[in-house]
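User: I'm preparing a small set of examples for a lab meeting where we compare how different chains pack in three dimensions. I only have the primary sequence for this one, and I'd like the structure in token form so I can line it up with the others. Please keep the answer compact; I'll paste it straight into my notes.
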Amino acid sequence: MDSAQWVQPVMIVCKKSGQLYTITNTREALDMLLRYWPVSDGKAFFDAMEVCIGVAEGRASKEQARQAFIDAAHEALIPVEIPDVIRVRGLISGPFEAAGPKSLLS
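Assistant: Understood. Below is the structure token output for the 106-residue chain.
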């Protein structure tokens, strides 16, 4: 799986807690989709999973995975933030430092 950083992170908001999670690469996006996504159906959801796996297999780019992840979030009615600032390596954390075993987004 490609863990190369996306040019621009995607921030999603947990609907229950209002907590913001920053997704910075395809590996984090796929993990979020598989483990914490509040729905497990929908065209954009399945497309995003397929594109993320496609990155690992060399069939898709990390930019395609990022856009597919954003599309899946919109489909699931998950608020999305796209920061205007340029990411500085190491200054934006992923969702996994505070993540527990429960669904983070529902």
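A couple of notes for your slides: The chain has a mean pLDDT of 83. Strands lie at 5-13, 20-25, 80-81.

User: Perfect, thanks.
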